[in-house]
Q: What sequence folds into this?
């Protein structure tokens, strides 16, 4: 009697946590929190739902880790500009320039993950919306802190409303994100950034 050789069963793909997190970041960035399902995530990662839950606990926790990764990579340009540029104006100029570059990159413009990830969600996802709001407010607070320093250093006038100025430039950055996702070309985004920079307090006309 001829024996039949049994073929070993294929093992499910082992989850590479770092690779999986980058995959999740890209999906969430393009489709938002509610627009990305567990099925989307596991299909892109090539793993089973139990493997995903074992590694990350829940979709919400995975999203939070993806946001952390975004903040330390693609979205790090804001913090780096505030820390590295010698003046507040140069920091803002760099932030606007790099926002245009990051938000318009790729065949499908992605905008900012913090600005478009979950502006509105179903009630059960309220903690996700609150976390994104907290992260955006923290960015504005960082910009204001740099502007407060600029006042002390004499770059900005003592009467400067640094809170309003920080909110203004944060709104410009968020607007660039939405415009990019709506398909605005890079030249349009650069023109918006240049116009916003001309609003800098005390900037010379035509500068």
A:
């Amino acid at each position: 009697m001829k024996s039949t050789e049994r073929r070993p069963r294929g093992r499910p793909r082992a989850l590479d946590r770092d690779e999986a997190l980058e995959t999740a970041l890209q999906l969430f960035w393009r489709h938002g929190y509610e627009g990305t399902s567990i099925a989307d995530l596991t299909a892109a990662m090539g793993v089973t739902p139990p493997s995903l839950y074992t590694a990350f606990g829940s979709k919400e926790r995975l999203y939070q880790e993806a946001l952390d990764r975004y903040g330390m990579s693609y979205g790090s340009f804001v913090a780096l500009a505030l820390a590295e540029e010698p003046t507040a104006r140069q920091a803002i100029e760099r932030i606007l320039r790099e926002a245009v570059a990051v938000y318009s990159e790729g065949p499908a413009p992605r905008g900012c993950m913090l600005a478009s990830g979950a502006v509105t969600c179903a009630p059960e996802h309220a903690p996700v919306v609150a976390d994104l709001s907290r992260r955006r407010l923290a960015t504005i607070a960082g910009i204001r802190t740099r502007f407060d320093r600029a006042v002390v250093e004499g770059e900005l006038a003592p009467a400067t409303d640094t809170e309003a100025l920080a909110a203004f430039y944060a709104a410009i950055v968020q607007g660039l994100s939405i415009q990019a996702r709506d398909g605005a070309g890079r030249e349009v985004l650069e023109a918006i950034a240049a116009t916003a920079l001309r609003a800098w307090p005390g900037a010379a006309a035509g500068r």
About this structure: The chain has a mean pLDDT of 87. The CA atoms of residues 198 and 204 lie 8 Å apart. The radius of gyration is 22 Å. The chain has two domains: 17-59, 74-197.
